[in-house]
Design goal:
556 residues, globular, 20 helices, nine-stranded mixed β-sheet, six-stranded parallel β-sheet, alpha/beta
Length: 556
């Protein structure tokens, strides 16, 4: 007979990405919100930074019914007038519509040195080497903790089971504050990627073969990361429950933060944004049409629907996300005799984007065929740093100019696909389903949302076993997952770049030769695999983490 898991009465969760769409953590939290809201109606409260100030945020909605509630309205007034806490209380505009509090943290900057001083005295967190976003994140984190402390005391939650989950080093300071001043709150610290691990990988150092030999503190000094590493490490050590998102990052935490994780929390998602039935077919057709229209206008070609459309996407981390090996693979594919179709490969990665190309806009508006390419026919939007851009420089190095006779054309789409970029004018989710294959050959990827999203849209994909998602796909298969399982997982190490490029090239060539029936099997397998990663399947790991944190507090 097992003990029943302790489940919280309230969960407060803070992140820089609450109602602030800047990366993958936004997806983790926003898609999990619905499941938690069903389990804890209006007792799951997300706290994020008030980045929008007077401007209207598309991610946050006011709820007059909510703030008109007598007790909540009284608390908001009290927190503002008596404690000087400036915040907006409303709902996160995502499925489940959970309560979201956006807090203004600017007022705490004048007390920054005092706050950092206490942090050093209490937890030996080194803020002396802070630069860049450290101060901003820390002041937000402190403000978030003040909100939770105020709520907890105002509503007298001493007898309730309350959990505070802090995401990433950016929220560590507030978690440590609550640990000291409101010890009745059970704390969870989740690192989605260690700051030092990402930095080692991003600085072209071999991470995995030498992981056992790296000293996190020493590397933080070498890479000028002392303050971020320090807050992250102390948060990991002092949290009631320390978590991360995959086994591969758990290993990183153990070696670089000197603290094994208590629970691994894999990233699930909701698939309610995936169109169904006839609507799916219609959207896929529209996406393919648009992708080919842009390609033809840019290249002066007349590529038809038989063209194989592939893409990679994500943050612009050239090596970490495997953008370099993606280009390498496509360059090799140019000379591959097994390739039976023309391939148009997109790189959908936001760079330092300037304006959409006017010459391309003009061609698209004319809606007619052209037989000459535009100047620089590898890019859809101008960049501010054309001569220093990694993607363009690699294409130049390999002489990849999208010539008429080339069977492989590569197009860089360097902006966020929000639906108003001036060229595609479609959102990422409306375009991704137009792909035949998505490729994410990551070197450093704690989880990997992009391949998970791709398979949800029935697009088979390629990833590596250095991505948490790739390892998960292998664990479902019970061996190396293949394209016929929905996801091709390539073995990647610190040193087998060339083999990875060849494996990607061969997989695309093989895919180009598949019969429609085989392609359909791959697409069905992809969709089926994605359903195993829904939050309804993965929320149990969070329940385990809540139990772990609550039991630790009870013991104390």
């Amino acid at each position: 007979m097992t003990n029943k898991l302790l489940f919280p009465d309230y969960v407060f969760e803070s992140s820089w990405e609450v109602c602030n769409k800047v990366g993958g953590i936004y997806t983790v939290l926003s898609t999990r919100a619905k499941t938690l809201q069903e389990k804890l109606p209006d007792h799951i409260i997300f706290i994020g930074p008030d980045c929008w100030k007077e401007k209207e945020s598309p991610y946050f909605v006011t709820d007059k019914h909510l703030t008109a509630k007598k007790s909540l309205g009284a608390w908001i007034d009290y927190a503002k007038k008596e404690q000087g806490i400036m915040m907006k209380v409303g709902r996160w505009n995502v499925p489940g519509k959970p309560i979201a509090i956006l807090v203004d943290f600017n007022q705490y900057f004048e007390r920054k040195d005092e706050i950092y001083g206490h942090l050093w005295e209490d937890y030996k967190v080194d803020s002396l080497h802070a630069y860049g976003d450290y101060d901003e994140a820390s002041m937000f984190s402190y403000a978030a903790a003040k909100v939770v402390e105020s709520y907890y005391q105002f509503f007298g939650l001493d007898e309730k089971k309350v959990v505070y989950q802090a995401n990433e080093w950016m929220t560590g300071l507030g978690m440590l504050y609550l640990k000291k001043y409101v010890p009745g709150i059970a704390t969870i610290f989740t690192t989605h990627a260690t700051s030092i691990g990402r930095s080692i990988a991003g600085n072209n150092k071999p991470l995995y073969d030498y992981l056992f030999a790296y000293n996190g503190d020493q590397m933080a000094q070498e890479l000028n990361m002392e303050s971020k590493h320090s807050i992250e490490k102390q948060s990991a050590h002092y949290a009631d429950c320390f978590t991360t998102v995959s086994e591969i990052t758990a290993n990183e935490c153990k070696e670089l933060l000197d603290k094994p994780v208590d629970v691994v929390l894999p990233n699930g998602f909701e698939n309610n944004f995936v169109p169904k039935g006839a609507q799916f077919s219609k959207k896929r057709k529209a996406a393919r049409k648009r992708l080919l229209e842009v390609a033809n206008a840019l290249l002066g070609t007349s590529l038809d629907d038989e063209t194989l459309i592939v893409s990679t996407s994500g943050r612009y981390e050239f090596r970490n996300k495997g953008i370099d090996v993606y280009i390498e693979a496509l360059n090799r594919l140019l000379r591959d005799r097994e390739l039976t179709k023309t391939v148009v490969a997109f790189i959908e990665v936001p760079g330092w984007v300037g304006d959409p190309r006017q010459d391309l806009q003009e061609r698209l508006a004319l809606n007619m065929p052209f037989d000459t390419p535009l100047e620089v026919p590898m890019i859809t939007h101008w960049l501010h740093n054309m001569s220093h851009d990694n993607v363009l420089n690699m294409l130049k190095y390999y002489n990849m100019w999208n010539q008429k006779e080339d069977k492989v054309k590569l197009i860089f789409l360097p902006c966020y696909l929000t639906g108003n970029d001036g060229i595609f004018n479609m959102t990422y989710y409306d375009l991704v389903l137009g792909n035949d294959l998505c490729i994410y050959p990551s070197y450093y990827e704690p989880w990997g949302y992009t391949p998970l999203e791709a398979i949800a849209f029935k697009v088979p994909c390629i990833t590596t076993d250095l991505a948490g998602f790739g390892l998960w796909a292998n664990s479902v298969k019970g061996g190396y997952s293949e394209l016929t399982d929905g996801v091709k997982v390539i073995h990647r190490t610190d040193y087998n770049y060339s083999e990875v490029a060849d494996a990607i090239k061969d997989t695309i060539a093989d895919f180009s030769n598949m019969s429609p029936a085989d392609v359909k099997k791959c697409r069905t397998a992809a969709e089926n695999l994605s359903k195993k990663a829904l939050w309804s399947e993965f929320i149990k790991y969070y329940e385990e983490a809540y139990d772990c944190a609550l039991r630790k507090v009870q013991k104390n």
